[in-house]
Amino acid sequence: MKKYLSKMSLVIILIGLLFSTTLFAEEAIGNGETATTAAIQFEETEQMSNLEILARKLVGGYMVKLFLDGGWLNWPILILFIWGLALSIWKLLSLSYAKINVADFLNKIIPLVKDKKYKEAIEIANKTRGPVAAVVYAGLLKTDRGVEAVEKAIENTATIEMASLEKQFISMSSVINLAPLVGFFGTILGMRIAFDAIAAAGDVDPTIVADGISVALITTMTGLSVAIPVQFFFNVALQMVDGLVLDMQRAIDKVTETIIENR
């Protein structure tokens, strides 16, 4: 439970830092505004949709302005961000829930197995959550059929549990790959807008190409800003899975060895 709370605290701190940075940027911009600019923004606020007003309250006006300046390609990037964030949170929570104290678990199971009190050991394993208890439970159910049956049951259950642990990884990888690609597509689109503006004006003027370059930079930035945190959560989740696999192997070896010694 302590490890679970510490991980959740880390996530909350990261989210807090993100929002604090956003609000700080918004405040810095707001301090430099003149009375005329404030009046213009008040008129613009009256014309905003309820969704935009809510978004400004949640993440700040500066972030909303960047999002809108990036054009329509920021909408699929936003969908990818929501999808990737939901997958990441769900994956980290499920892996945290699946983690148990293997030493305490084995200290309860092994003495019962040595005394051939398999029913009591099965009951404890059945009431314990996570893949470690699941593979041990599957093996203990087959103790009356011999060691080979126990090993076969453990192997089959371990395969199923591994597949379960690897869920959401493909989806998270899709977000990590698609978000920058959509952003780079926006880069190409923005440069096309800039060159079309040059062709229409017949002259190279920074003010003419500013809109196209703005779209190019913003979509690239938003695409990367989605992929980077999801990649971080992906790596954390992968490390947690590796830890669970090691715990499973440790429990399997110990329980199997004890069953063989007490035949």
Number of domains: 2
Strand content: under 5%
Report the sheet with the most strands, covering strand number, pairing sense and barrel closure. Answer: none
Low-confidence stretches: 11-47
Class derived from helix and strand content: mainly alpha
Number of helical regions:
11
Q: What's the pLDDT, averaged over the residues?
A: 77
Distance between the termini: 37 Å
The backbone outline, from C-alpha atoms, is rod-shaped
The total count of strands amounts to 0
What is the helical fraction, as a range of percent? over 70%
Radius of gyration: 27 Å
What are the SSEs and their pairings?
Layout lengths: L1 H30 L3 H12 L3 H10 L1 H9 L4 H25 L3 H13 L3 H10 L3 H10 L6 H19 L3 H33 L4 H56 L2
Helix pairs in contact: 3-4, 5-10, 5-11, 6-7, 6-11, 7-8, 8-9, 8-11, 9-11, 10-11
Describe the protein.
The protein contains eleven helices and no strands. By secondary structure, it is an all-alpha fold. It folds into two domains: 1-69, no CATH class; 71-263, no CATH class. It is rod-shaped. The two termini are 37 Å apart. The model is unreliable at 11-47 (pLDDT under 50).
